[in-house]
Amino acid sequence: MFKRKFLAAVLGTAMVASLMTGCGGAADTSSSSNDETEAVTEAATEAAADDTAADDTAADDTAADDTAADDTAADDGAADAGGKKVGIAMPTKSLERWNRDGSYLQEQFEGKGYEVSLTYSDNKIDQQVKDIEGLIADGVDLLVIAAIDGESLSQVLAEAKEENIPVISYDRLIMNTDAVSYYVSFDNYTVGKLQGEFVRDQLDLDNATGPFNIEFTAGDPADNNAGFFFNGAFDVLKPYIDKGTLVVPSGQTSFDQVATKSWDTATAMSRFQNILGSNYSDGTQLDVALCSNDSTALGVTQAISTDYAGSNSVIVTGQDGDEANLANLVDGKQTMTVYKAVANEAVATLDIGIALLNGETPDASLIDKAGWSFECAYDTSSYDNGTGVIPSYLLVPTVVTKDNIQKELVDTGYYTMDENGYPHPTN
Ligand code: BGC
After folding, report:
1. pLDDT in tens, 369-381
2. How remote is the CA of residue 23 from the centroid of ligand 1, in Å?
3. CA–CA separation, 119 vs 349, rounded Å?
4. Angle 122-262-106 (CA atoms, 0-180°, nearest 5)?
5. Model pTM above 0.90
């Protein structure tokens, strides 16, 4: 219900945005933050800068619309914001979801009157360090960071701590630094568990004798989430592997063997082509490709379509609801994706961020106080970043299949369905 309300507001303001473009008054706020964003972005690589410019335009349009459309709220927000700046560091535009995260976050904070600088670092670790240094030099009052490599930000975040800038570790936990104040994410272990349970239920593993053949593809070892996703799925399926109901013909069952650097689609594809060539070219049937997310699932489905000799439909899992993967769901090339409503992740980040900017120490009570109508757990035990447990706000993921795309993604306003039955994201 909340989601619908949230998206209706976004869609409504987006429409107003296109009407208000070029108007003065409130629009000035967004154009100055737009300049900021571009100034920071220009420090990034050419490729990232190009991407960001394109992305920023869309995001700024929406934010401009929000500001212009909702004068009262924006004015109140601006008064609360007190000229404070928020620095948002996203990993890359090449992985679809971060484009959505960046624009939702920007829109949320700008809607409350904060100045926002948004950077994308082209999946380059050094670039992200430089981008964060730039944000600190720029005088931001809060950092929201989705790390490329969770282990590489200790030094730059020591600078943030020195400047008393609170840091929200966004979606991915930043490791080995005591500068991180809070972690906001989805329940990452549950994402993997949902994938494993989906496979278990589809194959009726508790009753069927099989054996069924399965291969695993996991994410980037530099991303702390990747192990959680893999373990969540593997813990569900391991008893069936032990029993022999599930067989892994490649023998690749450890995280290190199945990981995919940078979550890269082409890397996942070529690894899977090798697996198919070495283990399935004799007519062995592949029943399941357990993929941790959509960017890797995309490569795996490409490999299956070009290099798999069998004609059965392989169960393929994913995560995120990327546009190409949802098209594959409709076309029967991918079987499920775990959807995480990043619009809600941005809302949670906003409320935690505002509390931090006001010098408060948010805890479990924030969830009721904020009145979110999406589920969220406050967790103080699961995520230790090497310096101690980081208090975490964890949202709840949802399984999406061909059969509930309309209900979960379109009726909620996150996607629209085109006349051919393919969903497209609304932001
Ligand atoms: C996110 C996933 C995403 C992956 C690659 C992870 O940290 O939680 O949603 O698929 O990064 O972008």
Report:
1. 999 989 999 999 9
2. 37
3. 17
4. 45
5. no
